[in-house]
Design goal:
This protein is an alpha/beta fold. The protein has one domain (29-36, 43-256, 310-341): TIM Barrel (Alpha-Beta Barrel), CATH 3.20.20. It has helices at residues 7-19, 71-79, 92-103, 121-130, 146-158, 172-180, 198-202, 208-216, 233-242, 251-254, 280-285, 307-324, 330-336; strands at residues 29-32, 49-51, 54-56, 60-62, 83-86, 111-115, 135-138, 163-169, 185-188, 223-227, 246-249, 264-266, 269-275, 298-302, 338-341. An eight-stranded parallel β-barrel has the order 4-5-6-7-8-9-10-11, surrounded by seven helices. Strands 12-13-14 form a three-stranded antiparallel sheet. The chain has a two-stranded antiparallel ribbon with strand order 1-15. Helix 9 packs across helix 12. The radius of gyration is 20 Å and the shape is globular. The relative contact order is 0.16. The mean pLDDT is 89.
Length: 343
């Protein structure tokens, strides 16, 4: 006969669940204007943001995923005033070559690049820095890990003028932990992406808007990058409103012509492939012949044409939202915005 669990274990779990905060997702909050706007046109709203020594005209980053950020995407994003982060699922030589091609004529601060936190990450970091890269993303699923701390510490010792992005995290405690270990910018969002299977496979998930709002309460220095689940300009607006400095896009960019990969026609409709970083084929592409564990899906996303059309749409939505809030800057936007809960 099975023995009952100790009462203290059951009680402790029940207490923790009962006291857990009520998280909110994109569709459970809305922005509401409570003041008259003085902006004559939405073009009066300025969306620029500082990222260390870099000035971006729009607060957008391209995700370092193999089906999102290659050379063409990074060049297109730089031309639009955003920043692309080259993916790491390739040889060091290929990534360095892509960085040089992407930054040619644009300046080395116009393109970022990703490295891991194990394996060849030190050699990859050094090669990218020698090539001129000054924005490097320590790209891993769980940013609150001792391996990330070790990689951050080592990277900072190698070069003091590189802007280091770390993550991903989903809580205030994890954000503070990374901030204290030297991260300049932190990706916030776990398991909300369209091709992420972490929620299904592990039970680990927090809605990105809630996570961003939580870390914004404790942020002292590091930039907040809202990263996960952005499907529309409204989602972008909500992340910036609750406290993100920048927003990282993945699937929203994957269907564009500048994304790596060819266009596929199915039943007369155009698509492109979108794979999660922990998907079977991406792990194989990175050199893992027989992946033991898969936390990423592979799917098709509708073809959207040039990426400038996506950026223009998202920025038009953001500027219009800012005009509703009588905000001429993102700082004013966050100060003036009010929210209502829909559920």
């Amino acid at each position: 006969m099975a023995l009952p669990l100790p009462d203290r274990d059951i009680g402790s779990a029940l207490t923790r669940v009962a006291e857990a905060p009520a998280a909110f997702d994109y569709d459970e909050i809305s922005l509401i204007p409570r003041r008259a706007s003085s902006l004559l046109h939405r073009s009066d709203a300025r969306t620029g943001v500082r990222m260390g020594a870099i000035s971006l005209e729009v607060p957008l980053l391209g995700s370092p995923m193999p089906d999102v950020c290659g050379t063409e995407m990074c060049r297109a994003l730089a031309g639009a005033g955003a920043l692309g982060v080259l993916h790491r699922f390739q040889t060091i030589e290929d990534e360095v070559s892509d960085f040089r091609a992407a930054s040619l004529g644009l300046g080395v601060t116009s393109v970022g690049a990703a490295v891991g936190t194990t394996g060849d990450h030190r050699e990859r970091f050094q090669a990218l820095v020698e090539a001129g890269c000054r924005v490097i993303c320590l790209d891993t699923a769980n940013g609150a890990h001792q391996q990330v701390a070790a990689a951050l510490n080592w990277a900072r010792e190698q070069s003091g003028d590189v802007l280091l992005i770390a993550g991903n995290v989903a809580s205030a405690e994890a954000f503070t932990w990374l901030e204290e270990r030297g991260a300049d910018a932190i990706r916030v969002g776990i398991a909300g992406g369209s091709v992420c299977e972490t929620k299904t496979e592990t039970g680990v998930f927090a809605p990105t808007p809630y996570s961003v709002a939580e870390v914004a309460r404790v942020r002292r220095r590091a930039l907040i990058i809202g990263d996960s689940g952005v499907r529309s300009p409204a989602d972008l607006c909500k992340l910036l409103a609750v406290g993100a400095d920048l927003v990282m896009l993945g699937s929203a960019l994957a269907g564009t012509g500048e994304a790596p990969g060819r266009v596929i026609v199915v039943d007369g409709k155009k698509f492109k492939i979108m794979r999660g970083a922990a998907s079977f084929s991406v792990q194989q592409q990175a050199g893992v012949e027989d992946p033991e564990y898969v936390e990423g899906a592979e799917t098709l996303v509708p073809y959207k044409g040039h990426v400038t059309g996506v950026i223009d749409r998202y920025m038009a939505g953001l500027r219009s939202s800012m005009s509703y809030m009588d905000a001429r800057s993102l700082e004013e936007y966050r100060a003036n915005v009010e929210f209502v809960r829909l559920r």
